């Protein structure tokens, strides 16, 4: 993936590609879009857009509800009058006055957030700046929509022929389905036009041929390709590869479009089972193959499992923790596939060289030294220095839950680093899922962040593993008040 700087202009980097980069790298922070007339912000958590704000007057909630026909002009004017008098949020005022039902407010806020984001897709000349770190706002109503679907809907609103033509590859370029299952199996509601176009893309036709042979108009065909290109479902084929030598198709259109019919409870149990046993599963076991499996079988199994455990599946789940589990499983599957497809590294034949073993021993020793320094700096009250050393320890020897736990503790002492502290502790929990201290400490982090429900859940888990855990007992009492 091409690295995109955190600061630049939309002329240099297109808005869809910026969003995809932030999503794929699972960034948390605020994406700020500035023009001379207004500033718009998108708040992201682990790569997903959850809220948006704007200084443009027409982007305010009242104006949005008025244009959508949810309130009348008289109701709008009355709510604005009370807003100036009380300082309350306009949505709350509309509900209190009986002009809006709570469910309509819920719909309205999500509609407002999406419309603010969609409006940015029309911009061709604006500055952007991504401020990484904990987001400054905790909204009650948040957007729960896959980044792929968000980009898909936004790009569909672009009708500028020259812009679409300029942002696409040359018309003599050959397009093929993405080789990355994370792009293929995004949660996106495709249209019949998209299905039609995808059905004829086989890695041999140029953009010009796809447009000329389509039943759509030239503009509609190009725009359809542009939308699929923008969400990374399509990629340009390497010009160094002969078209006649195209590899056999790995995944069919039916595979991509067919939804899973698995019930949520069964799916969650399967996720939990694999997640808790990840460290014990070999690459072959994870990919559900044996040591005699050929390359085609390995690849098909990888794509099948990548679809089943795609992180976007969390959008249809009620479990707030399932996304992190899916992301971890998906990454493990990819790592297993990259290892197993190399014949030299196939299990059980692959044996690390002496050089590999020496490097591993050196890294382990260096990690211990960095951990020791981190603990010393923490005791001195130098939390920044402690977190730097402890982060090195986790990079050099990521399989030590103690390193992740101490890293989380040091980060929790630094302003605006609670999200990073949470992620570090989740890694410790992944390595030691039954360690009550990890769950109790995570509960304390959630308490500090004002997330009582999540804290309560973690304290309960800690007590399930250790009924006498003092921190968990005290935390549970506090969250029940």
Could you walk me through the main structural features you see in this protein, from its secondary elements to its overall organization?
This protein has 481 residues and is of the alpha+beta class. The protein has helices spanning 15-24, 61-67, 73-86, 90-96, 102-120, 147-155, 161-167, 181-184, 192-200, 207-212, 218-230, 253-257, 264-276, 283-286, 295-308, 322-340, 354-380, 383-396, 401-412, 418-431, 436-448, 452-465, 470-479; strands at residues 7-9, 29-34, 39-45, 48-54, 127-132, 175-177, 234-236. The strands form two sheets. The protein has a five-stranded antiparallel sheet, with helices on one face. A two-stranded antiparallel ribbon has the order 6-7. A hairpin with a 4-residue loop joins strand 2 and strand 3. Helix 15 (295-308) packs antiparallel against helix 16. Residues 241-248 have low confidence and may be disordered.
How many helical elements? Answer: 23
Number of strands: 7
Strand content: 5-15%
Largest sheet: 5 strands, antiparallel
User: How would the global form be characterised?
Assistant: globular
Order of helices and strands: EHEEEHHHHEHHEHHHHEHHHHHHHHHHHH
- Roughly what is the average pLDDT, rounded to an integer? 87
Q: In total, how many domains does the architecture comprise?
A: 4
Major sheet strand order: 1-5-2-3-4
The amount of helix comes to 40-55%
State the secondary-structure class: alpha+beta
Low-confidence stretches: 241-248
Q: Span from first to last CA?
A: 48 Å
From the alpha carbons, calculate the radius of gyration and give it in angstroms: 25 Å
